[in-house]
């Protein structure tokens, strides 16, 4: 129940905006005929949902995406924004070594937001959730000055210990699974006013995190893990700090994909910057006491020392990645 | 990682705003030295949290509060807003007959938001969480054009079935636990430019849901339950619809608290309107096959018939409550 006294819009026009269909009307539209997985014991429509937590624990994370900050609707279609919001959270579940079990969505948006855009958002959320085997089990919609999507993901550790950021040990290898640098290249292209090549622009629009690699790494004995959301060096710095170790990344191990090399050449930039400091691809990076499992690429090592990240044995020049409000 | 190219603010000034301290700086400030309950198996600081789900299921809900829509910072202190956001979600957990186990918080706010206000928000979230025996286990902060708080609450059914909106049976009594009409009276007072009496204004600022009454009702055999967030009649209409029953509310059973009668008299309004259609107090209303348990007041009954809510046997004149974007 709101504090504002704005009256609802008149009901005689077509049902084109959120103000026209109302909160409950929108929720009915985006939840109708959805098929929930067996882990959804009670889906949307009540005060709360109920989700299976088979081993007696639930993994949970929340990530916020804001229009104009994390996405622009002139750069991304609504369903791509929905996919991206879901993916950012599902990757955080994977980074614990867990499998996702459910999503919940808190949405604020202007009353004049087209219903079509909101249905697109919901389609994207559902599509990405379904790709990870889960459903959207609940949420809330409120009016607000811009589109703000706050997604919560739940997950199951399947009886395993959580793989935190704090377990990296001297002697471990550092290994990567998934793409890095692609979303940053796409964002760079978009900022310069281009809309192609699609391969990099779409990487910014919809990340492709390797969800299954999270539980795989946990089973293979990963000592620490994180998803690359702020940039490889920035995120490895969290691992170095939490684990109290030095991490050294070898640029020779970071193969520059030919497509990124082409785009970098066209833009006149060094593609290595995208790989080291670009976020939003949601690759997984983990440490292993021995060899990395199949599908993972060793990109560095862990040693005793100050909790810092080195590149080829030396401090990295330039920013390590994105701190949302950082002063330096 | 954002799409916008706005550069961080300069670091030479005092650390007074979110832009000054940064996302990670704020998170450090609001999570430092917090004591988590035993159900928090892994708290803030990693990709995800891990929370106990002792009976193999987790109850989950999300509720969004927007500055200027659900609260105004000239009417409520930041800690009151935090309490309110937590309470709205904790009440949704209680309304399933569950006990809360954790909160997660997604926050968007302008870069120039004073750190003091955000620390106040966090204090309120923590205070309300602590009052329900849980901790804030995770969340995210992003810049945005207004303060948007999306809170997710988790809970445990302790082995019981969830009490949904769909189980009300003809012959059941309808019973209420907690206050109704107080927050609406407070909002009415604030809209008219007054700041007192404190009893009603504070009811708008910080609800006092009867959390323990949710599991109590479940143990007592409640057949359906909902929390009164949009208004008694509006929320009972959800129960009537989901259960396929007629609900009749007896106004003779709704005692008008003397304080509300005084305020209504001063404002020249009928206090019954607040009780029937006012939201935000987050009382619990449930149906029971026999007598209502101690602490609950019988306010009506359930009968076979169209899925509607009657007042003293007749349709209610006027709006039933708040649909956020409704046309009628």
What labels would you give this structure?
disordered C terminus, four-stranded mixed β-sheet, 60s Ribosomal Protein L30, Chain: A, 23% strand, 9 helices, Phosphoribosyl-aminoimidazole Synthetase, Chain A, domain 2, alpha+beta, homodimer, 328 residues
Mean pLDDT of chain A: 92
In CATH, the topology of the largest domain in chain A is named Phosphoribosyl-aminoimidazole Synthetase, Chain A, domain 2
- Global shape of chain A: globular
CATH architecture assignment name of the largest domain in chain A: Alpha-Beta Complex
How far the N terminus sits from the C terminus of chain A, by CA atoms, comes to 41 Å
Which two chains have the most extensive interface, and how many residues on each?
A-B, 107 and 106 residues
Give the structural class of chain A.
alpha+beta
- The CATH homologous superfamily of the largest domain in chain A is called PurM-like C-terminal domain
Q: How many strands of chain A?
A: 13
Count the helices of chain A. How many?
9
Structure description:
Two copies of one chain form a homodimer. Chain A has 328 residues and is an alpha+beta fold. Chain A folds into two domains: 18-156, PurM-like, N-terminal domain (60s Ribosomal Protein L30, Chain: A, 2-Layer Sandwich), CATH 3.30.1330; 173-315, PurM-like C-terminal domain (Phosphoribosyl-aminoimidazole Synthetase, Chain A, domain 2, Alpha-Beta Complex). Helices cover 31% and strands 23% of the residues of chain A. Chain A has nine helices and 13 strands. The first copy, chain A, has helices at residues 18-31, 78-94, 115-131, 182-191, 198-205, 213-219, 232-243, 258-267, 271-277; strands spanning 40-42, 49-52, 57-66, 99-109, 135-143, 148-156, 173-177, 224-227, 246-249, 284-288, 297-303, 309-311, 314-315. Chain A has a seven-stranded mixed beta sheet with strand order 8-10-7-11-9-12-13. In chain A, helix 1 (18-31) packs parallel to helix 3. Chain A is globular, with a radius of gyration of 21 Å. Chain A starts with 17 loop residues before the first helix and ends in a 13-residue tail after the last strand. Mean pLDDT of chain A is 92; it is low at 5-12 and 323-328. At the A-B interface, helix 1, strand 2, strand 3, helix 2 and strand 4 of A face helix 1, strand 2, strand 3, strand 4 and strand 5 of B. Strand 3 (57-66) of chain A pairs antiparallel with strand 2 (49-52) of chain B.
């Amino acid at each position: 129940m709101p504090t504002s006294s704005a009256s609802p819009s008149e009901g005689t026009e077509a049902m084109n905006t959120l103000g026209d269909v109302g909160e409950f009307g929108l929720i009915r539209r985006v939840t109708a005929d959805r098929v929930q997985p067996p882990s959804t014991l009670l889906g949307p429509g009540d005060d709360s949902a109920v989700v299976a937590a088979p081993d007696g624990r639930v993994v949970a994370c929340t990530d916020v995406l804001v229009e104009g900050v994390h996405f622009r609707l002139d750069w991304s279609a609504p369903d791509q924004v929905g996919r991206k919001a879901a993916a950012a959270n599902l990757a955080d579940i994977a980074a614990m070594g867990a499998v996702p079990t459910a999503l919940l969505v808190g949405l604020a948006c202007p009353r004049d937001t087209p219903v079509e855009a909101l249905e697109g958002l919901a389609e994207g959320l559902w599509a990405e959730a379904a790709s990870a085997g889960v459903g959207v089990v609940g949420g809330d919609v409120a009016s607000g000055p811009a589109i703000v999507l706050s997604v919560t993901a739940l997950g199951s550790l399947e009886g395993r210990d959580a793989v935190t950021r704090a377990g990296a040990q001297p002697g471990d290898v550092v290994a990567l699974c998934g793409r890095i640098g692609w979303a940053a290249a796409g964002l760079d292209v978009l900022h310069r006013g281009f809309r192609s090549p699609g391969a990099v622009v779409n990487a910014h629009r919809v990340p492709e995190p390797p969800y299954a690699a999270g539980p795989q790494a946990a089973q293979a004995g990963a000592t620490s893990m994180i998803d690359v959301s702020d940039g490889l060096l920035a995120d490895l710095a969290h691992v170095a700090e939490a684990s109290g170790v030095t991490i050294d990344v070898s640029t020779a191990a970071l193969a520059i994909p030919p497509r990124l090399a082409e785009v970098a050449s066209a833009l006149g930039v060094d593609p290595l910057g995208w790989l080291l400091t670009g976020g939003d691809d949601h690759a997984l990076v983990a440490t292993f006491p021995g060899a990395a499992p199949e599908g993972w690429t060793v990109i560095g090592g862990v040693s005793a020392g100050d909790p810092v990240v080195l590149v080829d044995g030396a401090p990295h020049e330039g920013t390590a990645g994105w701190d949302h409000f950082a002063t330096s």
